[in-house]
Design goal:
By secondary structure, the protein is of the alpha/beta class. The strands form 3 sheets. Strands 1-8-7-5-4-2-3 form a 7-stranded mixed β-sheet, with helices on both faces. A 3-stranded antiparallel β-sheet has the order 9-11-12, covered by helices on one side. Helix 3 packs parallel to helix 9, helix 4 runs parallel beside helix 5 and helix 10 packs parallel to helix 13. The protein is globular, with a radius of gyration of 21 Å. It starts with 10 loop residues before the first helix and ends with a helix.
């Protein structure tokens, strides 16, 4: 076993450059004591809306809640179906199930592993009410084509942008072609909190108001002691908002470095390790560096022996998970299923040294097999 270590993700390196600002944010929140609903929440919401180029941002407890709240605000529930790519984290489908609707899993493009109009068309039924476009690994879906397909059919188009903070498609901001985009601020994300957190961004003021009300126990705007609808408790804590505001200031710089890391990998990886394709006209957040290989288990084992950690996103597609067994016929998703056996996520973070990338590529080039 090698003494050198290349972690899959180095969170300490990500927070070190802003340690002083984070300390100041902590002192500010503990100083005023507004741990729930403190001024930092609205300040972050406004800053994140400006960053995304949207009219509104609603901070919520996590990324799963963000999707669920959008669905509830759109009155999607029992008897309805929502098209979801099969190769996403289960939270995407889980949010659909949690509102009483049925996720219908779709296949994806073999080059980008993203859902497109043809994939959606194959999954449509008379009960379809919405499409969840997941911007996987940091790369946005083709939102223009998806919007052109869904809009005439009266389908709500929602973006699961948990992995794509800072990404754009054809110069368009989040929610430019959808009803809303949802985000996760889980610590491992490009914009990570010191715990869970999430947000919804939208250009629809009515939808924003519904989501904000649902996330705060259905409370009335006119009287905090009146509750107009049955809601839930899904709030972005003040301390997390303060942390996110600090980290947001450095996000463009960190995303730019992730793009450099991707470039270094593309230049040095052997031909047997092929990164997922980046489609033209899209600016990725490069949340993950995902490659497809023929001998994944051996590759991961050999990298582990030289101190390199890897990840899998995701080895078991949603439609094959035990949680969804017995919930209707199991669809055949050949692209999703083939990729699930071949994908491997290489180390990447916003401060990753080029020497670490070179070390990973060196051992991938000379490995056995």
């Amino acid at each position: 076993m090698s003494e050198r270590r290349v972690p899959f993700l180095d969170l300490r390196a990500s927070t070190a450059p802003v340690a002083a600002e984070l300390d100041a944010a902590w002192k500010s929140v503990t100083g005023h004591g507004g741990y729930v609903g403190g001024p930092e929440v609205a300040e972050f919401e406004n800053a994140f809306a400006r960053f995304c180029g949207t009219e509104a941002c609603i901070g919520v407890a996590n990324g799963t809640d963000a999707i669920e709240l959008v669905l509830r605000a759109l009155a999607i529930g029992p008897g309805d179906e929502v098209v979801v790519p099969g190769n996403t984290f289960i939270a995407t489908a889980e949010a659909v199930t949690n509102v009483g609707a049925r996720p219908v899993f779709a296949d994806v493009d073999p080059a980008t592993l993203l859902i497109g109009p043809d994939d959606v068309a194959a999954a449509l039924t008379p009960a379809t009410k919405a499409v969840l476009a997941v911007h996987l690994y940091g790369q946005p879906c083709d939102m223009v084509s998806l919007a052109a397909f869904t809009s005439p059919r009266g389908l709500a188009l929602i973006e699961d942008a948990a992995q794509s903070v800072g990404a754009t498609y054809a110069g368009s901001a989040p929610a430019a072609h959808s009803v809303a985009a949802t985000y996760s601020f889980y610590p491992g994300k490009n914009l990570g909190a010191f715990g869970d957190g999430g947000a919804v961004v939208t250009n629809d003021p009515g939808l924003a108001a519904k989501i904000r009300q649902l996330s705060a126990h259905g409370r009335s705007d006119e009287d905090r002691y009146l509750h107009d609808v049955v809601g839930r408790n899904s709030r972005l804590d003040t301390i997390q908002a303060a942390v996110l505001a600090v980290r947001l200031s450095r996000l463009p710089e960190e995303n730019a470095h992730r793009a450099r890391v991707h470039g270094w990998y593309r230049e040095a990886l052997p031909s047997s390790v092929r990164l997922v394709e980046q489609a033209p006209g899209r600016v990725s957040s490069h949340h993950l560096a995902v490659a497809q290989v023929d001998d994944r288990d051996d590759l991961r084992s050999q990298l582990d022996q030289v101190g390199v950690s890897t990840g899998l996103h995701y080895p078991v597609p949603c439609h094959l998970q035990k949680a969804y067994a017995g919930m209707g016929p199991v669809p055949s998703l050949p692209v999703v299923e083939a990729a699930a056996a071949r994908i491997v996520s290489l180390p990447i973070w916003g401060q990753m040294p080029q020497a670490d990338v070179a070390y990973v590529c060196e051992h991938l080039t000379k490995r056995r097999g």
